[in-house]
Every structure is written in C-alpha cells, then in structure tokens.
Write a structure and sequence with these properties.
Blueprint (H helix, E strand, L loop, with lengths): L1 H23 L2 H12 L22 E11 L2 E10 L1 H10 L4 E5 L2 H4 L7 E5 L11 E9 L6 H5 L9 E5 L5 E5 L2 H6 L4
Antiparallel strand pairs: 1-2, 2-5, 3-4, 3-6, 6-7
Length: 188
C-alpha cells in the first residue's frame, strides 16, 4: 500500500514538473527581449582633448535665467544654469569642484555688508546624466543703515552683475561681465 502511494506521489511530482516546464520554457527568452526593449543604454560621451579650457563655455555651460527676490535682510539672486552632456561627463570623471563668484555693480556694493561679492560652491553632478538644469543662489545682507526702498528698487537689470566661474585652485574658467545679458542673449 505504501509503495502505491509513493509511486502515485512520484507520478504526481513528475507530471507537475513537466507541466511547469512546458509553461515556463519560453519565459526566459521573452524576459530578455522585453528587458532589451525597455532599457536605454547610455553611451559615454567622448570628451574632446584640452576640454578643461572650454568646459564652462557655451554650449557646454549656459546661463538660463537670473531672478532677484527681496526680503527683510537684503536680496537673493537666483541663477539658473544648464550643463550639457559633455560637461556633465567631464565633471563626473574628473570631479573638479567649481565655484561661482557673483559680484554686484559698484553702485550697489555700499548697500550691503561685505565687499559685494558672494562665493558659492557649484552643485556636484552624480548619477547617469538625467539632470542638466541647476540653480545657485547668492544672498546679500543689507547694511543696517540702508533704506528698504533702495533694496526694493534692485532688479535683474540693475546690473551689470559680474560672474566668475573658478576651479578649486581659483583659476578662472569663465567670466560673464553681464549675467542678465548672458541669460537673455539669443542662442541659435
């Protein structure tokens, strides 16, 4: 009696295994085909020789917008910029840290604490290159004796605002004499 039960169990397992194999035999190939059609392979962009001299120049680096916002303590300049895929790959593989030096025009410097220049570290790039748009903010604190009307009169066109992009050794990578003009120039 036990022998019949054992043979019956073995037959059941054998039939079930054969049926399972029959149902799943093409599934591996179907998954490979489905994966290859849904996955986008990112190609590494070739970086030109001597690229470090032109890395932060157009078309690799572009200023998109400059906005001024006023607050009780002073003003904040928000600069939107874009980097292309070549500069992105360069920053990923060479990991240079870049900094922005944003300088107010001479007639506005006396309204704020400090020397009228704000230094901010540029955003580090990481990942696979999906992000190309970045933002950096420069905050200027007004002097206590500065009238709020003078602060509120400052706008994007009160400049020209000066921007330097420098590396970790403070070597100048690019200079924008008029940030607002650079953000609004026509690009073909």
């Amino acid at each position: 009696m036990k022998c019949k039960q054992t043979i019956g169990a073995l037959v059941f397992v054998g039939v079930t295994s054969a049926f399972y194999y029959y149902l799943t035999r093409n599934q591996g190939e179907q998954m490979k085909h489905k994966l290859s059609s849904n996955v986008e392979v990112k190609q590494k962009v070739s970086i030109p020789d001597n690229f470090e001299n032109e890395a932060f120049m157009m078309p690799h680096f572009m200023i998109k917008n400059l906005n001024v916002s006023h607050h009780d303590n002073g003003v904040t300049f928000k600069l939107d910029y874009k980097i292309d895929r070549v500069l992105y790959d360069y920053l990923m593989h060479h990991t240079p840290h870049y900094r922005f030096r944003f300088t107010l025009p001479q007639e506005l410097k006396s309204l704020f604490e400090g020397n009228g220049t704000e230094r901010v570290l540029g955003e580090l790039v990481y990942g696979t290159g999906e992000k190309s748009d970045y933002t950096v903010s420069f905050n200027f604190i007004k002097r206590k004796d500065t009238e709020i009307d003078k602060i509120n009169a400052i706008n994007e066109m009160s400049g020209p605002y000066h921007l330097d992009i420098v590396d970790e050794k403070l070597n100048v990578l690019n200079v924008f004499e008029d940030v607002y003009g650079a953000a609004n120039m026509m690009r073909f």
